Amino acid sequence: MTTVSLKNVVKRYDKTEVVHGINLEIEDSEFIVLVGPSGCGKSTILRMVAGLEEISDGTIMFGDRIINNTSPKDRNVAMVFQNYALYPHMNVYQNMSFGLKMGKKSKKEIAKRVEKAAGILNIQNLFKRKPGQLSGGQRQRVAMGRAIVRNPDLFLFDEPLSNLDAKLRNKMRVEIKELHQRVKNTIIYVTHDQVEAMTLGDRIVVLRAGHIEQVGSAMELYRNPLNVFVAGFIGNPPMNLVNAQAVKEGGKIKICLSKNWLIEAPAGAISKLKPGQKLVVGLRPDDVILKGLENGSLDNAAQGVVEVIEPLGSEIHVHLNIDGVKITGKCEGSRDITAGERVTMACNMDKLHLFDAKTENVVK
């Protein structure tokens, strides 16, 4: 187990810079997730930590040891790939023991480690099978077992669940979290799936175009996004983001979201807003309040039309059109609501997020 420190880490391919001075401190035994859209640099960062990519500038440290020029085999890391990377001609036991065999470990030591790892992952009954005889989930467990037997200081996961179906992804997420709770190793996990990121990570690093946008726990990012990108990326369904403008009416600063939709500015933001200022208003679907037309006099409310409903059992996702503004809300699954219905929508003002439209940063 070890701490990992990235200091001003840069990656260039020829003259094109794809990772721009990343700074990140990862604690011993921490499960950290790198998340972001395709091409944001998350896998490149992981490969630099593994030693599979050279860094162009900066420093990577394991504990107090600089490992910039240390070969991958000497970094004591274990990597689990998206495509499993199992040897097709070897059975499960041979795949799991191969690295130990190459490391000249004794047969007794190899058997002890393989049995222990297989017990953690419940794959002892698969020892004699070859990869072609395994399901996707079983292959991923074998790949994880092969990593565990090495007793690495650091586990690196590169989108390990992206080839699995949705149901199996959910199951494997739980197993990976249980694995971390058992072995307590430091883990760096790469994914483009924000649900994976939120459910797995002690902390999440949100990346965009080779830059770190924000680092924090799942709930910190969900409740207090620092900019429009993080606000829209974290959360499912995603946060409603509406272009708006600060206006002065009756001596008060208000926020205009559409021609007929004017809301009070949150008390904490009034002093920071200027009339005419362009804004982006963020509102989670959980914080959309839906009422019947008889409640149309609600504060900060507007009337709209239900365009689409998505029944999900315990809840319904409701897609609204309010003066041309598209809003997604939630209501209880028992609610009787239909497409084409007119409803009154209000905001939970305590949960409203305001961002400056020019900088896209939160209004502080």
Secondary-structure blueprint of this entry?
Elements: E1 4-13, E2 16-26, E3 31-35, H1 42-50, E4 57-62, E5 65-66, E6 77-80, H2 92-102, H3 107-121, H4 136-148, E7 154-158, H5 166-183, E8 186-191, H6 194-200, E9 203-208, E10 211-216, H7 218-223, H8 228-233, E11 240-249, E12 252-258, E13 261-264, E14 278-283, E15 288-291, E16 302-311, E17 315-322, E18 325-332, E19 342-347, E20 353-356
Parallel strand pairs: 3-8, 3-9, 6-7, 7-8
Antiparallel strand pairs: 1-2, 1-4, 4-5, 9-10, 11-12, 11-14, 12-13, 14-20, 15-19, 16-17, 16-19, 17-18
Helix pairs in contact: 2-3, 2-4, 3-4
Describe the structure.
By secondary structure, this protein is an alpha+beta fold. It has 8 helices and 20 strands. The strands form 4 sheets. The protein has a 6-stranded mixed β-sheet, sandwiched between helices. The chain has a 5-stranded antiparallel β-sheet with strand order 13-12-11-14-20. Helix 2 packs across helix 3 (107-121), helix 2 (92-102) packs parallel to helix 4 and helix 3 (107-121) crosses helix 4. The chain is elongated and about 80 Å long. 36% of the residues are buried. The mean pLDDT is 92.
